[in-house]
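Structure tokens please, single chain.
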Amino acid sequence: MPSARDWNEWKEAAASPGVDAALRTLYAGVEAAAHLRGPRCEASGRCCKFNTHDHLLYVTGLEIAWFLRQAGEQKAATEPGYEAQIQGLRLPVLSPRQLPDGCAWQVDGLCSAHGFRPLGCRVYFCEKGTEDWQQQTYEKFQTQLRALHDLLGLPYGYMEWRGGILDAARMA
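Here you go.
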């Protein structure tokens, strides 16, 4: 797992207007590329039930830092959801299979963080027949995300989503 120094660098970068704009631009490109393929989202929530549907979500440390910043800004101070979600995840991590099955931001089967979800969430669709282009699209934008780290001189950390969220929460 990344060091406290890595998390601090990612958090600092995620607070930068330039990094915010770069990530929003990258994610808009992902959305446009996916839209061209015309996948159908049935809002089944299967995409967020990682263990049940036998898949994992991988993200960069910068994505997690940016995501948590957006989540904090999106939730009103009176809304208990965000703190409960983070605090509810403070448990020992041995492997992704031992983590909670789903994403903490799935509420009543829907994504409560849809507008600021990571790259992998934006390109994954459980609709049959979409697998062929998903991997290619993911790799294209993941390469751009890696290039952003290099451009900014940031450490690069690639990790499983739930474990990364837990690690970031411990470093807070």
